[in-house]
Amino acid sequence: MTLDAPDATARPSRATLRDVAQLAEVSIKTASRVLSGQPNVREETARRVRDAARALRFRPNRLARDLRSGAVSTAVGFVIGDLSNPFYTQIAAGAERLLREHGLELFIATSDEDPERERRVTLTMLERRVRALFVVPVAEEHAYLVPEQQLGTPMVFIDRPAVDVAADSIVLDNRRAVREATERLIALGHRRIGLVADRTQVWTARERVAGFADAMRAAGTEDWQRWVHRAHDVATARAVASDLLAGPDAPTALFALNNRITAGVVNAVAGLPGPPAILGFDDFEFAATLGISVIAHDPVDLGRRAAETALDRLAGRTGMPQQIVLPTRFVARGSGERPPPKAGP
Amino acid sequence: MTLDAPDATARPSRATLRDVAQLAEVSIKTASRVLSGQPNVREETARRVRDAARALRFRPNRLARDLRSGAVSTAVGFVIGDLSNPFYTQIAAGAERLLREHGLELFIATSDEDPERERRVTLTMLERRVRALFVVPVAEEHAYLVPEQQLGTPMVFIDRPAVDVAADSIVLDNRRAVREATERLIALGHRRIGLVADRTQVWTARERVAGFADAMRAAGTEDWQRWVHRAHDVATARAVASDLLAGPDAPTALFALNNRITAGVVNAVAGLPGPPAILGFDDFEFAATLGISVIAHDPVDLGRRAAETALDRLAGRTGMPQQIVLPTRFVARGSGERPPPKAGP
DNA sequence: TCTGTTGTTGACATCGTTGGCACTGCGGTG
DNA sequence: CACCGCAGTGCCAACGATGTCAACAACAGA
User: Fold this and answer.
1) Which single residue has its CA nearest the C1' atom of nucleotide D9?
2) Are residue B307 and residue B288 in the same domain, yes or no?
3) Secondary structure (3-state) at A94
4) Which of A4, A23, A104, A173 has its CA 20 to 30 A from that of A96?
5) Distance B168 CA to C29 C1' (A)
């Protein structure tokens, strides 16, 4: 009993192909052939190998496999902003479903809506040699992805387009959707419309505010900027809405530009007598129950289309990056159809 | 200018450590030392290497690194049932936050609530040599994980305990929570309590129904079984609730045993005159706005505790698997405090 | 001058797998 | 009988990184 015998100590180690080959009394290569389904192995030999693998509970090391065989990993990376926002996770769910049908696995990591973290997790994904990459970007700067893309990793940007890298993207028709919804409010007689938008850094927020501006200007309201307010999370949105309604010259309608803001606004308004009109961007589970009118779209479809695009590229499609614009639809449920109070100054 | 110079053809390939070393005119090993921050390299040499790496846009290949250095990957696997259920994603968000602080990255894959798929994605995670593994299990059978666990990969089961593998788990005090909530309904005078529970296969559903049975039996209701109904998604839950309320001997209270079922029930009841009392398991964003009383708990904390447990194991804690039971709290918001109608048979 | 120490560097083996190629029998062909 | 094709198998290199160890220079102390 020597002191340095490593196998004597209680340190079981994972069975490798070598162990399987040894037990089956074949070469490593033959074992590999059997276990990865290559032809030209006698059935009896194959059986021996399979038995050995089972006995040793052999699990191939994907790291080694993927390393050896270049970029044929089955992992696809998905970088989203925040796991607790259903908007992101539904996109992921949509992409996942389609990818799975093609034998690919979706791995999700979060950027926490921080550009620097987005960059880090994205690069980590690439270091792991994912087969394709999906990003719902927060950062404005993606030049660092250019070389990676040239190396052949398909990349698809979701919900927000790629700026300084020529990649495919799937977006919503934000500007038009908000313009048209704002026009509806104006047609109902609203002029004091409180818009609650996400941070300016976010592309969708900018687009949506632009749509609002389009409609307001068309209606002759040049000081539309004073009606634009900012919030990024539910609590802030709630506070902003409460303040607006309590303040002088309170808006007769509130327009919340994403799901979290809508949650805050709905919360603030709940139970108020003579509530303002309310519109939200993004549909949500309780919108029907609460009677909230929204600009609806299908995040699952957003993800599905992104997956389609990536699969196309993997199948060999080349050429200019595509930008797919998905439609939205207005769903009237009551809250957005309330006219402003009759008596006014 | 030879014909076979590979660099002459338009085949850009990813720069490796070798390329960097060549350009910097050092050995591969020295380049490795510089780029992975090992000591004992002359500053001038180090600078040359860093410059070369930058010029070639070198990105290390994690596959190779992780392969060589054994199981020291920074990836942690998380297997959840469904990306579009906030319950799961919030758990993931909680775990992610803590893991990140320890330099670990969370990779999420979904089982689609299918035991066979759960098994497959779990094994894939292990084949990728994750440092630790989290599972919100659907399957009842996890014996296949035993050898992997013995090899040292910490595993934590979340929301539902591990059955045939001795792993740590974090669960809620389901049975007690439901028993006590049911007792409240009984104290209010309810006897006809319609319970809408998830499938029997799901451990939490069984526990929660057991809690209901405890309370009903204690109150002398031996035929509690006839009040138990099943639903797995929002639509079914809604239909079940509608049927119950329309049928003869309609319940005076509805108790929904998870977030999706609650959504369906709330939907079905919305706007009804003289609505039944409603209780839900799992809190949700609009519960306050809608005045729905719930058994609340913190999924984010569930994830955080799971991460803590795994980190402990990684830090070397040995010994028996722990089962951590997290408390729930009852949040009264009105819907659960409605007494049954006075006039009765 | 010899020996020991310290810092810097590179040659080589290695992780677990797959690809390329060569080798062995064996039956069929000219 | 030399030759070919072909199924079945094994040896060796390779993927891209890191670990081990030794070589070497510079310098201090005896």
Assistant:
1) A30
2) no
3) helix
4) A173
5) 69
